[in-house]
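Hi everyone, sorry if this is the wrong subforum. Our group has a chain we'd like a structural model of before ordering constructs, and none of us has done structure prediction before. Sequence below.
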Amino acid sequence: MSALKINYSQEIIAGLTTFFTMSYIVIVNPQVMASPGTGLTISGTLTATVLISFLMSLLAGIYIRLPYALAPGMGLNVFIAYSLIIGEKIPWPTALGIIFWSSFIFILISVFPIRQKIVEALPNNMKHAMSCGIGLFLAFIGLKNLGLIVPNPATYIALGDINLPIALGLLGFLVIFILFNKNKSYAFLFSIFLITSIALLFGLTKLPETYFSTPDFQSHFFKLDLIGSLKWSFIPVILSVLLTNLFDSMSSLIGLANSAGFIDKKGNPLRLKETLMVDSIASLFSSLFGTSPATVFIESSTGIQAGGRTGLTAIVAAFCFLPCLFIAPIVTAIPVFATAPILIFVGILMCKTLKHVKANTLDDIIPIFLTIVLMPLTFSITQGVLWGIVSYVILKICVGKIKVISPVLWVLALICFLALVTEHSTFLEFIMK
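Answer:
Right subforum, don't worry. Here is the predicted structure as tokens:
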């Protein structure tokens, strides 16, 4: 696309639209990553979030030359914070190291055609099940943060008492629904500021002593533990992060390309190799800066709908992120019940992929069920992925459908099986006695 064909005013408007649609990540990602128990700070994570969004969206605009903006992805941030750091008690520097190594593999398989083979190896039903399972996990975290779901010694979990914060959170969800249904790009951001304003009026939160601060490059930058994250026990976790990141980015990219018409004669996304490379580099730099993996944001579709057709849209969106480096004190004043509705809403949107599942036999239904259910129930995306892949292969063997298992899937299933046996089974200990 030549420079003469660029409608600059249209591209700038599209870039602003993209930024306002995805700007909620500047607030939500630091709150997720700095949840109690992670050891991460809001200021450090906010700096990492803004910087990675700026640099990678800028790189995408220059190198890919399409209106694709990048930022830390929803779902992956919950996975890292709640499943790895809080759930499995992995120290945050080690978790960042895990992201680094999964991203390193990500880059290798993006350079070679391995990435495509992995995508093709897993059945479509499993891909949709993973997305739905992550969505349920995300929504569960949102409901928990809101206080609508609370621990119960008799029933494990129960419905919490409806108080003012929960009522405000439900109002925020309703506001998001109404604005999102009207295709308003500011739906998430407006809900956050509306609920925070009401919370201030009722004294449920306080204004910060200062509204601006300098970026925090001390807390997390380049403090990942590369050696400690290379243990054998972390191999399934690295694999899980890799697969989750892989399918998240591929689904977003395919959806964006098809909706915008950025496809070639064979139906493949335009500049696919360049996009995959930027996406994998963004994931690696996220670990260096101290946040969850960044990926192509599906919210880029709003900028495309606003007329964005070139990389200028992504460049404009990138520079819009820079002022956000200085608003850490403002983010700390935003109550968790103002951001929890976004987790719930995004989780619901991710569950929409369930409509694409086509399963009539139990050897298909059971792996799908395990993948979806085990993610929220075990508080781990990793377990859903491992049990889903292993059960799929085992059940196909049992019903004599070995031919549908590709060589790549055999390898993946073997890795997942070994991970389950070594990490969650006492069988080996029994044999060795």
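For your construct planning: Residues 269 and 284 are 23 Å apart (CA to CA). Residues 235-260 form the longest helix (26 residues).
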